[in-house]
């Protein structure tokens, strides 16, 4: 029988385009970024030189770096957890064949299609001090006497960004959860029902454990995706007040294009890469169960 | 046979195409690329189209290619394309970006490309601000001194004389405090002044006139220095105003402009674009006239009586990588010194259309009272208040310091830290 494995030339030729694309557009930029983190690269210098671990030492001594790292973990961690809980809830609702579930699914998914910049502007208005929906609603019910500067008060600004990140992540996670729920065998659920399980028992003891791995993998993907996102803090708060909403992506951008410190920006990126790789490996090893 | 015919056919078509393209190449022996954002806006596009036409008539055979570059991406695009060796021949920038572009070796000295008369027609302070290592590397296309715009209606309502705007910083503070006692309007509080206090570097840049107004500077012997008494007093001034609810907290340029156009702020610091902004953002409800709703005056004076301000001009530069510096600079010459083009620019945009005092002091610009207040300010306008390639970084650190002082921290202590951070990053 013919097997492509026997035709080494054809095999190589078929793999080459994809390998080249990955090498040029993924491997090389990553390798170059890591290399830059060991140099003093800056557009302000004609030639860069090797500086060893100097950039790493500088960064570890910098209070702002630790503050930004803390902000990033807090914002992305809470946003991912919040988005997961809401997405699973929505997916369960839509999976139960409620009326117009197809319409609701489409409507919720629209959020995924809207560009980040539009979402940032929309949430800017929601939290606007004078005309915002949040202040307006709270004032209407007498819950606040004075308007709150949501985006300019440290803790509130962080929560605004967390809510916004979570809101944006819900459609993607919901679609994955829904697909996972629809993949749960009806025989298993019927068997549970025969054993006397009620709806909530079936949900928590059978359905959710069965989709656990898919949910956790989706959460990981979404969390990693949010690490790269800087539009929201950039437009809503510009990283402020006092760096309270500054996240790693925006911090490295500022280092590169405000300080012209490509080396330090690359160092932030390299540490971020290592951190995510280690976290991903740990997460997949310990949290995702062997089925 | 069929294959031969096919090859013959292709070869002859390729030959004809090559000849046609070759002739086109001869007809357009040179091309000049101009990158910028002026051509993206309806208000500046007519003048750019006119400039394009005139330039190509004057330089027959030269193809002028306009490269659309959004303002937000302009600096990154200029630096990255320069480093990559493929920048446009003429690059539109703002003054604050010039040191960075000059330091990466991206700008061509203009001293020998423009005539001495042309150079001398530009105010000396502008030339000094845009010189790098003794060479003029940029010229202001649209000068942008920042002056004090004020709402005459709010001043009247607060019992102030709109024909006598504040002349000193204490007087301005009194006026601000009086205006912010006015009752709510348009669904929100009325503020005395719309100061920029967001974390954007631009907010700190906009605080520099207040530093000047407190008698000091943000650099000492050409070295960035924010740890001094005048910066500390300026931050305290800002914090006092903000914490008295007389200026909004955390606003950037967009929000402050909206506030002013809604008649919810008595004062705002803006450049010559202020008139257009007020008219457009208020849907034509507000007039900008000496006896209208909004008018403009020089910035308040420092205790020694001196008036200084910053400028944020749009500038034109020639890339150091251009193969045709003469042709490139001729585009700058065309837009800056051709009266028809500058008139068209001024009519459609209201911006100062040139840095040539001959153009600014005569014709329709010379007859415009609003424009002339900005022209009068040019001799004491500092377009690069800190001549550093890391200007944005310095301003970013100062902006965070400003927010800390507004939140109640001691200005002197904050500035020690800010200065240390700036020095640490400058050393790198």
Question: How would you explain this protein's 3D organization?
Answer:
The complex is a heterodimer of chains A (291) and B (428). Chain A is mostly helical and 291 residues long. Chain A has helices at 8-36, 54-61, 63-95, 101-113, 116-126, 133-140, 154-182, 186-194, 199-227, 231-236, 248-257, 262-286. Chain A has a single domain (59-290), classed as MetI-like fold. By secondary structure, chain B is α/β, with parallel strands linked by helices. Chain B has two domains: 9-144 and 312-382, Periplasmic binding protein-like II (D-Maltodextrin-Binding Protein, domain 2, 3-Layer(aba) Sandwich), CATH 3.40.190.10; 147-310 and 390-426, Periplasmic binding protein-like II (D-Maltodextrin-Binding Protein, domain 2, 3-Layer(aba) Sandwich), CATH 3.40.190. Chain B has helices spanning 2-27, 45-58, 71-84, 98-103, 116-120, 124-129, 152-157, 169-179, 201-205, 208-213, 229-243, 253-261, 274-281, 325-337, 339-349, 357-360, 363-366, 369-377, 391-406, 411-427; strands at residues 30-36, 62-68, 90-94, 131-132, 135-136, 139-142, 147-151, 191-193, 219-220, 223-224, 265-270, 294-297, 309-310, 314-318, 381-382. In chain B, a hairpin with a 2-residue loop joins β9 and β10 (223-224). In chain B, α2 (45-58) runs antiparallel to α15, α11 (229-243) packs across α19 and α12 packs across α13 (274-281). The radius of gyration of chain B is 25 Å and the shape is globular. The A-B interface holds A 40, 42-44, 46, 58, 64, 129-131, 149, 151-152, 237-243, 254, 257-261, 264 and B 75-76, 79, 83, 100, 103-105, 187-189, 198-201, 248-250, 252, 389-390, 392-393, 396, 399-400, 403-404, 407, 421, 425, 428.
């Amino acid at each position: 029988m013919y097997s492509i494995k026997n035709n080494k030339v054809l095999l190589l030729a078929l793999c080459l385009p994809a390998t080249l694309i990955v090498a040029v557009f993924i491997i090389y930029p990553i390798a170059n970024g890591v290399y830059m983190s060991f140099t003093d690269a800056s557009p302000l210098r004609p030639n860069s030189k090797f500086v060893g671990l100097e950039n790493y030492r500088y960064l570890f001594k910098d209070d702002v770096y630790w503050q930004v790292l803390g902000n990033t973990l807090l914002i992305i961690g809470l946003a991912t957890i919040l988005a997961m809980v809401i997405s699973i809830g929505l997916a369960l609702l839509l999976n139960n064949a409620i009326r117009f579930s197809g319409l609701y699914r489409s409507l919720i998914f629209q959020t995924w299609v809207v560009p980040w910049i539009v979402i940032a502007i929309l949430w800017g208005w929601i939290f606007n001090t004078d005309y915002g929906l949040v202040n307006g609603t709270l004032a209407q019910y007498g819950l606040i006497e004075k308007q709150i500067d949501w985006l300019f008060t440290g803790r509130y600004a962080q929560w605004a960004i967390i809510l916004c990140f979570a809101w944006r992540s819900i459609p993607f996670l919901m679609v994955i959860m829904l697909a996972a729920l629809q993949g749960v065998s009806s025989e298993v659920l019927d068997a549970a029902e025969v054993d006397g399980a009620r709806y909530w028992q079936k949900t928590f003891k059978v359905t959710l454990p069965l989709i656990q791995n898919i949910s956790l993998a989706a959460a990981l993907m979404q969390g990693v995706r949010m690490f790269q996102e800087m539009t929201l803090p950039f437009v809503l708060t510009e990283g402020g007040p006092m760096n309270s909403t500054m996240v790693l992506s925006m911090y490295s951008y500022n280092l590169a294009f405000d300080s012209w410190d490509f080396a330090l920006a690359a160092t932030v990126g390299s540490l971020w890469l290592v951190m995510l790789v280690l976290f991903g490996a740990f997460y997949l090893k310990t949290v995702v169960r062997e089925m | 046979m069929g294959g031969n015919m096919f090859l013959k056919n292709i070869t002859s078509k390729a030959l004809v195409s090559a000849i046609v393209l070759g002739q086109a190449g001869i007809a357009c022996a040179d091309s000049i690329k101009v990158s910028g954002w002026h051509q993206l806006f309806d208000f500046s596009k007519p003048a750019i189209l006119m400039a394009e036409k005139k330039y190509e008539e004057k330089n027959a055979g030269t193809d002028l290619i306009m490269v659309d570059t959004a303002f937000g991406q302009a600096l990154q695009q200029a630096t990255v394309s320069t480093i990559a060796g493929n920048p446009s021949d003429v690059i539109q920038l703002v003054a604050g970006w010039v040191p960075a572009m000059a330091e990466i070796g991206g700008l061509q000295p203009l001293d020998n490309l423009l005539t001495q008369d042309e150079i001398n027609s530009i105010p000396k302070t502008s030339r000094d601000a845009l010189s790098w290592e003794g060479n003029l590397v940029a010229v202001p296309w649209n000068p942008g001194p920042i002056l004090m715009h004020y709402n005459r209606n709010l001043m009247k309502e607060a019992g102030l004389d709109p024909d006598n705007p504040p002349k000193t910083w204490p007087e301005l503070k009194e006026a601000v405090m009086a205006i912010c006692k006015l009752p709510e309007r348009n669904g929100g509080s009325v503020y005395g002044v719309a100061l920029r206090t967001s974390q954007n570097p631009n907010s700190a840049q906009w605080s520099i006139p207040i530093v000047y107004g407190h008698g000091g500077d943000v650099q000492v012997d050409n070295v960035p220095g924010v740890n001094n008494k005048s910066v500390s007093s300026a931050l305290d001034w800002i914090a006092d105003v903000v914490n008295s609810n007389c200026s909004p907290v955390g606003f950037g340029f967009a929000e402050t402009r909206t506030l002013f156009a809604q008649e919810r702020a008595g004062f705002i610091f803006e450049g010559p674009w202020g008139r257009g902004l007020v008219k457009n953002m208020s849907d034509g409800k507000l007039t900008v006239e000496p006896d209208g709703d909004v008018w403009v005056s020089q910035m308040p004076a420092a205790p020694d009586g001196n008036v200084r301000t910053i400028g944020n001009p749009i500038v034109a530069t020639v890339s150091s990588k251009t193969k045709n510096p003469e042709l490139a600079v001729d585009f700058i010459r065309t837009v800056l010194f051709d009266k028809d083009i500058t008139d068209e620019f001024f009519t459609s945009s209201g911006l100062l259309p040139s840095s040539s005092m001959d153009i600014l002091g005569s014709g329709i610009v010379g007859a415009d009272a609003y424009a002339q207040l900005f022209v009068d300010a040019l001799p004491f306008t500092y377009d690069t208040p800190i001549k550093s390639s890391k200007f944005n970084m310095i301003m970013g650190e100062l902006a965070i310091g400003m927010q800390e002082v507004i939140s109640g921290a001691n200005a002197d202590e904050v500035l020690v830290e800010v200065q240390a951070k700036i020095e640490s990053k400058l050393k790198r």
